[in-house]
Amino acid sequence: MIGDPTGKTDMRKMLTKEDIDHNVSCFKKQMQRFIDFSDDKAIIVNNGDWLLNLNYIEFLREIGVHFSVNRMLTAECFKQRLEKGLSFLEFNYMLMQGYDFLELNRRYGCVLQLGGDDQWSNIIAGADLIRRKEGKAAYGMTFTLLTTSEGKKMGKTEKGALWLDAEKTSPYEFYQYWRNVNDADVEKCLALLTFLPMDEVRRLGSLKDKEINEAKKVLAYEVTKIVHGEDEANKAQQAAEALFGGGGDLVNVPTSTVSRSLLNTNILDILIAAEVIPSKSEGRRLIQQGGLYVNDNKITDINAVIADNDLEDNSILVRKGKKKYHKVIFD
Prior knowledge:
Blueprint lengths: L16 H15 L16 H4 L4 H7 L6 H4 L3 H7 L5 H4 L1 H16 L3 E5 L3 H15 L4 E5 L27 H9 L6 H8 L4 H8 L6 H17 L1 H15 L10 E4 L6 E2 H7 L6 H9 L3 E3 L2 E2 L6 E2 L8 E6 L3 E7 L1
Parallel strand pairs: 1-2, 3-9
Antiparallel strand pairs: 4-7, 5-6, 5-8, 8-9
Helix pairs in contact: 7-8, 9-12, 9-13, 10-11, 10-12, 12-13
């Protein structure tokens, strides 16, 4: 409900309580593929349970007194923001995360906090707060952020983000993301995101030129299998082979069904109905840039019409750019 400056140049969007409650339920559903929540082997809690009803004066007296502003300003996440302006609201974030660790220690005996290495300052603040308030030892463990060879965070752009939720990024699109990573990032991704033996990771990572594509296929399949399950990984693999390898089953390609009444109407109307494009303006831009194909034929006219004789088995295969395919069925 407040902005987090960590690793960003701008504040995060503020969310409503309803949005956050919805997100928490989604997080648990996603994490169940990786963590066993049965019989309280793992629990998920909402820090709003203790933060939303805090008394500000009591918080300052009990918690704020243990934080040094001078020390906080040496944290990398704050130093980066000072040049552009750091709000007091954002400055509180370290206190709140530190207090979370203290509350988790008191309520559940939590002694270890894990996070990305950009969270180091916040984690250490919490461990220090537990030591001061409870006289106990607490620990932090960080892991390297998943970044590209250029140092940018992977799959986390505001536009075109890579989601674990299949409703936001389909298993096929998820597979294709890893299938198309830069050559220089393949070995790192195989090492961090799969359970392949490291000898095999190094062998695949050492492949060059066209051969590196085999390593990318392994990466895409293994990561998709972990996140979405073996069945979805197989379907995504088959769809990719059907489109790019001349074999496989097109039934697994991302597909939408639209009304047959849309035949003999503008291509842009059809693509919007099929949710292939979000707006006509984006569709026009795609056509003007030469990036839209129907059944491997480039569309050059923004007023192009799709007719009966354009269909193959009551459908068209749409391609955006070089690699994004979508099947549209007319029913």
